[in-house]
Amino acid sequence: MASVKQALQWALEEINESDSGQLDAELLLGEIIGKSRAWIYTWPESALGEHEHQLFQQLVMRRKSGEPVAHLIGKQEFWSLELKVTGDTLIPRPETETLVEQALKLIPTDKSWRVADLGTGTGAIAIAIASERPDCTIIATDQSRAALSVAEENSSNHQLNNIEYRDGSWFLPLEKEKFNIILSNPPYIAMEDPHLEQGDLRYEPNSALASGKEGMDDIRYLINHAANFLHKDGILMIEHGYDQGEKARELLQQQSFSSVTTTHDISGHERVSYGFLT
Ligand SMILES: C[S@@+](CC[C@H](N)C(=O)[O-])C[C@H]1O[C@@H](n2cnc3c(N)ncnc32)[C@H](O)[C@@H]1O
Q1: Residue at 70 is within a domain
Q2: Which structural domain, as residue segments, surrounds residue 159?
Q3: Which atom of ligand 1 lies at the shortest distance from residue 207's CA?
């Protein structure tokens, strides 16, 4: 019978090419035995049941062939919240926490702002904001019904009732409403980018990732049309690629947004740009 430690050692030899091999193996094992990573560190000599060991080996081999850990365990942590993830949704990324953090600096704690999250996927942004600002109303949209049903399940798992989900392309589901802040992490990878054929991206929906020749089509569309849906001084905040900050600022300025600013992510890359409607 293999111990926790032996099983992890074997897994690391199999998936040691991945930067996150150790973490991946611990997450997979933790999921199978229903224990936390802290438990795994504390009880390395515990014996695994034969079935558990076999299941673990199968998941490690699937990880080795490239499947994302979030798909193998069906969940991902975002803003310290556990979110269900499926093949129909983008796996929420740590970079997107930069957008949440910046948005929370601007959304007052004592006002009931109307917030839009366009292209909500698992609901990551909407759910993080809703949990931090219970008096705000969040309208979260996506053109993927399958993604919206995952987002709805995530909201209900976190007992949030200040998010309304709507289906449709970008601003269509907003009708004639105005918002205090519009947030979006749209697809922003160039269609021909070879990364789309590598790593986790192969397993995520292309419609959540790619956006035209330079990856700017959706960002441009959102910036060009947001003004109709914002109150005066309303904010548009968009996540973008590390090399798209300059272009995003230029587009915001062309559309009469003022005090245009870009925030860097934890790796120091330009990641989120925003401005105030004048
Ligand atoms: C990069 S993912 C972001 C998902 C989620 N907001 C997050 O940060 O994890 C982009 C999302 O936009 C959605 N999307 C793509 N095109 C869209 C469109 N025209 N209208 C609405 N949503 C769209 C995709 O289905 C996907 O869920």
Answers
A1: no
A2: 75-277
A3: 15
